[in-house]
Specification:
364 residues; four-stranded parallel β-sheet; five-stranded parallel β-sheet; alpha/beta; ABC transporter, substrate-binding protein; 13 helices; single chain; signal; 49% helix
Length: 364
């Protein structure tokens, strides 16, 4: 009996050893599903050729706050190995009914934002930086053999973001007294990073945040502020349109206050979140100060193209992808700096006079 027990014991240890030896690290492309295109584009920048990214909400013609995912969207999320979400109640549908094996990367959790905070985190330099690092860490965890590659991609992204941040700081230092008003809170973080003060009437802000009707007196106060040109620029979200915001953008145009359209979702002409934010910065700074512009240094961009060319030797198209990004950024810069018109559009070409916002949960 003792011999039999010993034999069973040995057999048990051997079986356990065989089972452990069969646990092999996953290989192949990581299946990533993002709730919105802007975070999906960042995942693609960090993951490169080793990720396949599917973004659910990508249209600038859809109200993100009322978005309802299709069955196919939920199926894609359920099959994802990594889910990239915004959080802060902006896309709660994205993290429901997920596979237990899925890893969730949430912008809200990354920066500690909670319900009631402004949800448009992709416009925050801190959130973008935190998400880039978190994505690199998660990708490295699920594909340990690719850790060096993801680290390289992160460093490339950080150089681009550093260049963007430098241009924003330069503007902030030279325009300490600039102001803006907004029909909705989409660009709150972006304007804060640019150092531009929000002068939107608080009565209007509170009415919009509470989701109620804006009182005529509140609307009149906003109009008077624009007529007095107390704001250097009016920021408008064309995805949130109403007669009220049409009135405000019309008042701004008549009062020679520039109007800059800022959509919530990334327009299709941009291939990366970095390029989109850079184009918005160009548009806003040029609208405020047409003589200033926002010229970027091409040296780092050239270095990024060289790095991607090396990766493309593996049969990938990353070099052309980076070239497209550079071209898109350059085109946006040329377009923005070559005009001194009152209106600057960075969405899908929607007319500012036809757009605005009355939704709730819009913190300025």
């Amino acid at each position: 009996m003792m011999l039999a027990s010993a034999a069973c014991g040995i057999g048990g240890r051997k079986a356990g050893g065989d089972a452990q030896s069969k646990v092999v690290a996953k290989t192949g492309v990581i299946n990533v599903v993002a709730s919105v295109g802007q975070w999906g584009s960042l995942a693609a920048q960090i993951g490169g050729k080793d990720v396949k990214v599917t973004s659910i909400l990508t249209s600038t013609g859809v109200d993100a706050h009322d978005f309802e995912p299709k069955t196919s969207d939920l199926t894609a999320l359920g099959k994802a190995e990594v889910v990239v979400a915004n959080g802060v109640d902006y896309d709660s549908w994205a993290t429901k009914s997920l596979s237990h094996e899925a890893t969730v990367v949430s912008a809200g959790q990354t920066v500690g934002a909670t319900k009631g905070d402004n949800p448009h985190l992709w416009f925050s330099k801190d959130a973008r930086s935190g998400m880039a690092k978190e994505l690199a860490a998660v990708f490295s965890k699920v594909r340990p053999a690719k850790k060096a590659y993801f680290k390289k991609r992160l460093q490339q992204w950080q150089r681009q973001e550093k260049q963007l941040d430098a241009s924003m700081q330069k503007f902030a230092q030279g325009h300490a007294k600039t102001t803006y008003a907004a029909t909705e809170s989409v660009a709150y973080y972006l304007m804060s990073d640019l150092g531009v003060k929000d002068v939107t009437p608080q009565s209007y802000v509170q009415a919009v945040m509470n989701g109620g009707e804006v009182a005529p007196a509140d609307l009149q106060e906003f109009q008077e502020l624009l007529e007095a040109r107390k704001a250097d620029v009016l920021v408008n979200n064309p995805q949130e349109s109403s007669q009220m915001t049409n009135l405000l953008t019309g008042t701004a145009n008549k009062s020679e206050v520039p109007v800059v359209d800022v959509t919530e979702q990334m327009p299709k002409q941009y291939d990366s979140l970095t390029d989109w934010v850079a184009a918005l910065v160009d548009s806003i700074t040029t609208a405020i100060d047409p003589e200033y512009g926002c010229t970027s240094d091409g040296d780092d961009a050239d270095g990024e193209d060289s790095g991607e060319a090396q990766d493309s030797q593996d049969g990938q198209s990353e070099q052309s992808e980076q070239s497209d990004k550079t071209d898109a950024s350059a085109d946006a810069k040329d377009s923005d700096t070559s005009t001194k018109q009152k209106k600057y559009t960075t969405g899908d070409g929607d007319d500012a006079s036809q757009s605005g916002n009355t939704k709730s949960g819009t913190e300025n």
